[in-house]
Design brief:
With about 100 residues, this protein is α/β, with parallel strands linked by helices. The protein has helices at about 30-45, 60-75, 90-95; strands at about 5-10, 20-25, 50-60, 80-85. It is built from 3 helices and 4 strands. Helix 1 (about 30-45) links the parallel strand 2 and strand 3 (about 50-60).
Length: about 100
């Protein structure tokens, strides 16, 4: 990773689920970008999203807050959104905030 910017890659798996992999620093800007990317997948008609956070090496509360806000909006659109491969500190924060 060359900067503090959150890097995103998106692909569709064989089951049709969209996988959005994040790498780097999940700050407010990164959380907003991740939310927009997920929203674009839902707008394109995908109903199952996997957000892979394995390579999020640093995060702040503003970034997590933006991510959770986006998840609430997406889940309200009858889609399934799953967070996968969370590192323990991020997992604890998300569980605490939920």
């Amino acid at each position: 990773m060359e900067s503090d910017t959150l890097q995103l890659t998106t692909e569709v798996d064989p089951t049709g689920a969209v996988i959005i992999a994040a790498e780097g620093y999940l700050d407010a800007e990164g959380g907003a970008r991740l939310g927009r990317e997920a929203g674009a997948a839902v707008a394109a008609g995908h109903t199952h999203l996997l957000i892979d956070l394995e390579n999020v090496v640093l995060f702040n509360c503003a970034g997590v807050r933006r991510l959770l806000f986006a998840l609430e909006q997406l889940r309200g659109q009858d889609g399934q959104v799953d967070l996968v491969h969370l590192r323990p500190p991020l997992q604890r924060l998300i569980e605490f905030d939920a």
